[in-house]
Amino acid sequence: RKIHANAEADSEELVNPPKVEEKIGAVPNGLSTDSDVAKREAESISKRNLRANAEKFEFQAEVSRLMDIIINSLYSNKDIFLRELISNASDALDKIRFLSLTDKEILGEGDTAKLDIQIKLDKEKKILSIRDRGIGMTKDDLIKNLGTIAKSGTSAFVEKMQTSGDLNLIGQFGVGFYSVYLVADYVEVISKHNDDKQYVWESKADGAFAISEDVWNEPLGRGTEIRLHLREEAGEYLEEAKLKELVKRYSEFINFPIYLWASKEVDVEVPADEDESSDEEETSDSSSSEEEVEDEDAEKKPKSKTVKETTYEWELLNDVKAIWLRNPKEVTEEEYTKFYQSLAKDFSEEKPLSWSHFTAEGDVEFKAVLFVPPKAPQDLYESYYNTKKSNLKLYVRRVFISEEFDELLPKYLNFLKGLVDSDTLPLNVSREMLQQHSSLKTIKKKLIRKALDMIRKIADEDPDESNDKDKKDVEKSSDDDEKKGQYAKFWNEFGKSIKLGIIEDASNRNRLAKLLRFESTKSGGKLASLDQYISRMKPGQKDIFYITGNSKEQLEKSPFLERLTKKNYEVIFFTDPVDEYLMQYLMDYEDKKFQNVSKEGLKLGKDSKDKDLKESFKDLTKWWKSALASENVDDVKISNRLADTPCVVVTSKYGWSANMERIMQSQTLSDASKQAYMRGKRVLEINPRHPIIKELQERVVKDSEDEGVKKTAQLMYQTALMESGFLLSDPKHFASNIYDSVKSSLNISPDAAVEEEDEAEEAEAEAEAEAESKEASTSKGDDAAADADTLKDEL
Ligand SMILES: Nc1ncnc2c1ncn2[C@@H]1O[C@H](COP(=O)(O)OP(=O)(O)OP(=O)(O)O)[C@@H](O)[C@H]1O
């Protein structure tokens, strides 16, 4: 919101304009060498108020809170502001360089066309300034970018800071600029965009900022200069040595030259000062004859002397050779880690889990560096299908093009960070044209391969992962410890992405399936892979068995596992809702089919008794099927998966499992009519060795019309439904069946009725309550009368 100008008129600056000598004295710092700088700067401000004639604005509330947090922060690593400013400057330079690809004019001429970053110090006025010749900001940009439009990261960052977050991560939230208030109490942003005049943004982080057209500073040509009026305690940032060290540290991977306006002591010959010599002459009158001789000598010498003088010049602080152009063998682990940090703006302590630096040759040439971050961002899956952004930066012949290029990697690999620099793509076309370029398909294909190889490498190098028998006396290396447990870590953070990949990327399904991890009946609390599963399969076992459900603990008790576990078959536990979808796409692996053990079609080798059993229970199965006709039960069969449980309900192969039904029912927007359609047909499977089943069979043979048997059969079915993971559609009906059964076990007659309440007594109680409430309302209406009544009662 705009506040009207002049609300806080600044009289101070007019009453007390800065002294002209001061301005000139400040010239060596190089902020400006213009002779009329003093006049222009007279319009400058005092440190206490913003410019009087500026348009004033309030910060958006979240931004204001963020600034409060920063300005009051006790965070000790204040250096990070410089990293954020350099990074912003570099982004701005990238933008103008990109635009210049299709419009050469845009860069301008002379110094304006130089794409660099310049840092200057003014010790006297305690100003640190960082200037770039990037794209600059229009007045509108200044208003929007620096204060009024809160980015989504703002509140996320504020929230994080309140729960003891790390200020170091500020850049990740897209609010890095505000870190300037760690060291400054007043900041000016002077900016010139090609489409607008030069403007100054200024703020003291006190809830408001001001913008004015800049008619007093040196024209920037194009770009932005950030002037930090440093706080008293931030004096160290006026030391050249400190800045050199910081710039070196933070600009290692900045692809534009960074200069510091650095001082240098030089010896210069100057004419000997005449005043000085005449002084000497005056004093020489009273001096000894020896001195007189010396003086005579001096007169013979040329009238000049050598003095130390401080000069200033631009000193280049960084080496702009891009890391990805170097030979991977020459890049150290530490350099990769630092490169990852600057690329991902992730300055946490943790190292990336893995990286891959390679050159692709052939029809399409490119270099790339890919990283697996140590942690997934919190919102990785929140808007999975709506966000386009991939985290790969695209460069074409060293020129940064974009970081929002969705054609580079499929969505499921969006968690990777890195960059691609291609020599094959054309430079002078628009982003849209580039997006259509045929080489992109090849680049994408190669990137996916490399990315999956890199992920596999985490597993291959993790000592926890290897099957002991596969491990052929590999020497334990010193980084074994470092690599230990890394794949489990990867899986915890990004496992869902691999599953989404299996669903979405048919051409890499097998490669992705290799990366899949799960717990199983035999994994002993660790993660297992499909290859491990296959290596443990029983002779003659054809299928890979799995079960889906809510949690491993619940699944371990599932009746569907009874016989499988008894016979020592391994069953995979899939407990993530996405697993249900996953298994609709993952049909087989290494020629083995997947079999959900709660679905039809489970084969555990031939049992010679099967046929006989089927025959001997024919009466019961037939009878039961017709008794359940109204229950959407397709069939009643003899089970091969039960040991101790009398019966279970399995679903047809292609319909939803019980777990999927539950997931779908819990989705707010699910369509009930579709649910009915997708719900699998149910089959009741009975355990022919179970005494209840045997008894039921006998009773049915004796009297198929027996009401008691019918009821018991229904209760059995309902119980089996529940145990098999289904939600009961009519829990009331189930409960009343149970109570009937309880009655019979307690020898209570099935007709025994619930005792009625005494109606006369109830009527009396009601009348009493009514009278009481009337009394209460009269007492409210006439307090005095009520008081009198009470008094009477008491007397
Ligand atoms: N030197 C600059 N030149 C041009 N625009 C800038 C400059 N510095 C900041 N901006 C603009 O201000 C915006 C806000 O900057 P800020 O540092 O808070 O976030 P960001 O740069 O988007 O995110 P991050 O800090 O993660 O890079 C930027 O997006 C950019 O549009």
TrEMBL record:
SMART domains: HATPase_c (SM00387)
Pfam families recorded: HATPase_c_3, HSP90
Main location: endoplasmic reticulum
UniProt superkingdom: Eukaryota
Organism classification: Eukaryota, Viridiplantae, Streptophyta, Embryophyta, Tracheophyta
Family: Belongs to the heat shock protein 90 family.
Keywords associated with the record: ATP-binding, Calcium, Chaperone, Endoplasmic reticulum, Glycoprotein, Nucleotide-binding, Signal
A GO term, aspect molecular function: ATP-dependent protein folding chaperone
Organism: Vitis vinifera (Grape)
Compositionally biased tracts (Basic and acidic residues): 771-795
Cellular component GO terms held in the UniProt record: endoplasmic reticulum lumen
Binding site for ATP: 84, 88, 132, 137, 145, 151-153, 172-177, 224, 431
Protein name: Endoplasmin homolog
One biological process term in Gene Ontology: protein folding
Domain Histidine kinase/HSP90-like ATPase span(s) in chain numbering: 77-234
Gene3D superfamilies listed in its UniProt record: 3.30.230.80, 3.40.50.11260, Heat shock protein 90, C-terminal domain (1.20.120.790), Histidine kinase-like ATPase, C-terminal domain (3.30.565.10)
Subcellular location: Endoplasmic reticulum lumen
